[in-house]
């Protein structure tokens, strides 16, 4: 069975058997609770092929998180606009100003003070990963701890980082969906596997990105700690399909998966935190056409 069939089966289950619920956005979903998918990275990079996934945008987001990013300006400078909806909504509601997304993004890029005030997302993913606040006023770099443990204590059962800082949730533009990452070294085979727990998964729009980014970070960490990539394991908790994505999901389910691509990483990069998008490429990615769907905010 093609590895992507796991995902198509999940979409089909949500379409046919999902629990219909009214959600935070008011759009409504069909949902299920508790789901697992596994991908062997030796079989190819799990970038889904039944619709085009804009992998460069996804990878830029993951690299931004690894760098500890917390402002949309850092993304907009790379032409990544996927986080704009939340601060734009806050700006409109707070000021009563009717401003287009394009005008808002331009002000973020051009006006330092405006970017500092309205581009901040709060202590979101990367901030927690790289600067978790400690009780004594210091910060904890969880990602660096993972790297250190993989090099010095690879059989530890504590090789992980988390983003769910209960004390700071109310200050975040969006509480972390992919909240927990954990890594495992198979000493017999010299491989590194990565797992991620996702409390909330948008099955049509977001999940393909989440799987690709979990695979990416596992590849990068393996490269920087001397292991071969093993597998990734994804655990979804509230997995949902928005009601306005059902027709798109049916279109995607009817498609046949194509061969998975291969990830190539520039071997000259010697730090996990020095990777840029130009250091990464995907070979032989030939997906079906993109399928559009609106984001629920």
Describe the protein in words:
The protein has 297 residues and is an alpha+beta fold. It has 2 domains: 208 residues, Thymidylate Synthase, Chain A (2-Layer Sandwich); 50 residues, no CATH class. The chain is built from 10 helices and 10 strands. The strands form 3 sheets. It has a 6-stranded mixed sheet with strand order 1-2-8-7-6-5. It has a two-stranded antiparallel ribbon with strand order 3-4. A hairpin with a 4-residue loop joins β6 and β7. α1 crosses α10, α2 crosses α9 and α5 crosses α6. The protein is globular, with a radius of gyration of 19 Å. The mean pLDDT is 96.
Q: Please, what is the oligomeric state? A: single chain
Name the CATH architecture of the largest domain.
2-Layer Sandwich
Order of helices and strands: HEEHHHHHHEEHEEEHEHEE
* Beta-strand percentage range: 15-25%
Tell me the Rg in angstroms. Answer: 19 Å
Sum up the overall morphology in one term.
globular
- Overall number of structural domains: 2
Helix content: 25-40%
Could you give the count of β-strands? Answer: 10
Poorly predicted segments:
none
Number of helices: 10
Write the CATH fold name of the largest domain: Thymidylate Synthase, Chain A
């Amino acid at each position: 069975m093609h590895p992507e069939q796991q995902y198509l089966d999940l979409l089909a289950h949500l379409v046919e058997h999902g629990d219909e619920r009214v959600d935070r956005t008011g759009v409504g979903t069909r949902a299920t609770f508790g789901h697992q998918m596994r991908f062997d990275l030796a079989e190819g990079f799990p970038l889904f092929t039944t619709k085009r996934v804009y992998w460069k945008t996804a990878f830029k987001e993951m690299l931004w998180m690894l760098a500890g990013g917390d402002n949309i300006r850092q993304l907009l400078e790379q032409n990544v606009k996927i986080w704009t909806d939340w601060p734009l909504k806050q700006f409109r509601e707070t000021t009563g100003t009717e401003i287009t997304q394009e005008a808002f993004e331009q002000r973020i890029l051009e006006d330092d003070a405006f970017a500092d005030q309205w581009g901040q997302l709060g202590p979101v993913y990367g901030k927690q990963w790289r600067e978790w606040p400690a009780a004594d006023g210091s910060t904890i770099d969880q990602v660096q701890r993972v790297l250190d443990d993989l090099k010095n204590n690879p059989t530890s059962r504590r090789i992980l980082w988390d983003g769910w800082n209960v004390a700071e949730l109310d200050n975040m533009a969006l509480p972390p969906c992919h909240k927990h990452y954990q890594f495992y070294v198979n000493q017999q085979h010299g491989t590194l596997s990565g797992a991620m727990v996702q409390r909330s998964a948008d099955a049509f729009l977001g999940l393909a990105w989440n799987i690709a980014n979990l695979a990416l970070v596992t590849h990068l960490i393996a490269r920087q700690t001397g292991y071969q990539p093993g597998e990734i394991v994804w655990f979804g908790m509230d997995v949902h399909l928005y009601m306005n994505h059902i027709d798109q999901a049916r279109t995607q389910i009817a498609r046949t998966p194509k061969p998975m691509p291969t990830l190539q990483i520039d071997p000259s990069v010697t730090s996990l935190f020095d990777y840029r998008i130009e250091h990464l490429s995907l070979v032989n990615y030939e997906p079906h056409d993109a399928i559009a769907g609106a984001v629920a905010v």
